[in-house]
């Protein structure tokens, strides 16, 4: 079956959605391990409770991004995953790391890319006055938050929204979106065409609206 390693930095709610999608979807797939750059990430404890192997690779133990990424790659490669899924993983990865997992490294970003790459996307959306906010699941390339798009989810922005309100509304869509993408990957339906655009067999729309 399809082997996933999931990378987290904190709460891990997207990681939980991925694990649940694999279990409840009856997929020929498994989450082999959950890896974090933070020893005390809440998501690691949840994964351990589920019987999923966990690994911490604390970034502060390494003197450079290159050294950290090399240790991270060693931790990942021990599980021989088909795909590495970033789920609230908050470290920027080096081009060497990204190229190593070319076509196999996927991220969820909390904005409608290419709008609002980087951090504090909910604040950015409110400051921009946009009426729709959203999230993007995409292949990771060396350019931050810019790779081929697998799926996008939209939520409305309401008049009185705070960044936290918007984040909470969007999180439901994130979970739904990542679960769908994991199913497509596990079923071997995802490909990149010659233009580096994503194709998913048997799926008409990869847009979701709350
Ligand atoms: C999610 O909203 C995810 O989209 C975002 O962090 C949150 C993690 O929550 N990711 C990024 O900002 C990536 N730069 P979770 O740990 O509960 O999944």
UniProtKB/TrEMBL annotation:
* Gene3D superfamilies per the UniProt record, alphabetical: Formyl transferase, N-terminal domain
Sorted UniProt keywords: Purine biosynthesis, Transferase
Q: What is its EC number?
A: 2.1.2.2
Q: Where is the Formyl transferase N-terminal domain?
A: 3-182
Q: Which pathway does it operate in? A: Purine metabolism; IMP biosynthesis via de novo pathway; N(2)-formyl-N(1)-(5-phospho-D-ribosyl)glycinamide from N(1)-(5-phospho-D-ribosyl)glycinamide (10-formyl THF route): step 1/1
What's one GO BP annotation on this UniProt entry? 'de novo' IMP biosynthetic process
Listed under GO cellular component are:
cytosol
Q: What class of enzyme is it?
A: transferase
Q: Where is this site: Raises pKa of active site His?
A: 145
Q: Which residues form the active site?
A: 109 (proton donor)
Q: Where does (6R)-10-formyltetrahydrofolate bind?
A: 65, 107
Q: Kindly indicate whether the keyword Transferase belongs to this entry.
A: yes
Q: Does the keyword Acyltransferase apply?
A: no
Catalytic activity of the protein: N(1)-(5-phospho-beta-D-ribosyl)glycinamide + (6R)-10-formyltetrahydrofolate = N(2)-formyl-N(1)-(5-phospho-beta-D-ribosyl)glycinamide + (6S)-5,6,7,8-tetrahydrofolate + H(+)
Q: Where does N(1)-(5-phospho-beta-D-ribosyl)glycinamide bind?
A: 12-14
The record's annotation in CDD domains points to: FMT_core_GART
Give the molecular function GO annotations: phosphoribosylglycinamide formyltransferase activity
Q: What does this protein do?
A: Catalyzes the transfer of a formyl group from 10-formyltetrahydrofolate to 5-phospho-ribosyl-glycinamide (GAR), producing 5-phospho-ribosyl-N-formylglycinamide (FGAR) and tetrahydrofolate.
Family classification: Belongs to the GART family.
Please identify the protein, giving its name as recorded. Answer: Phosphoribosylglycinamide formyltransferase
- Per the record, the gene is purN
């Amino acid at each position: 079956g399809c082997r996933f390693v999931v990378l987290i930095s904190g709460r891990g709610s997207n990681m939980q959605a991925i694990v649940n999608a694999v279990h409840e979807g009856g997929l020929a797939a498994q989450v082999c391990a959950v890896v974090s750059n933070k020893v005390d990430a809440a998501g690691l404890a949840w994964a351990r409770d589920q019987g999923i192997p966990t690994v911490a690779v604390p970034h502060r133990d390494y003197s450079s991004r290159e050294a950290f990424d090399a240790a991270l790659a060693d931790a990942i490669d021990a599980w021989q995953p088909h795909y590495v899924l970033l789920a609230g993983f908050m470290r920027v990865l080096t081009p060497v790391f990204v190229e190593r997992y070319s076509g196999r490294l996927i991220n969820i970003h909390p904005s409608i890319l290419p709008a609002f790459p980087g951090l504090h996307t909910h604040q950015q959306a409110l400051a921009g006055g946009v009426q729709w906010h959203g999230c993007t699941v995409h292949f990771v390339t060396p350019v931050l938050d810019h790779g081929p798009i697998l799926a996008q989810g939209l939520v409305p922005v309401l008049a009185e929204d705070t960044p936290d309100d918007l984040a909470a509304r969007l999180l439901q869509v994130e979970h739904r979106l990542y679960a769908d993408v994991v199913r497509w990957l596990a079923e071997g339906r995802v490909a990149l065409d010659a233009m580096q655009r994503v194709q998913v067999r048997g799926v008409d729309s990869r847009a979701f609206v709350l």
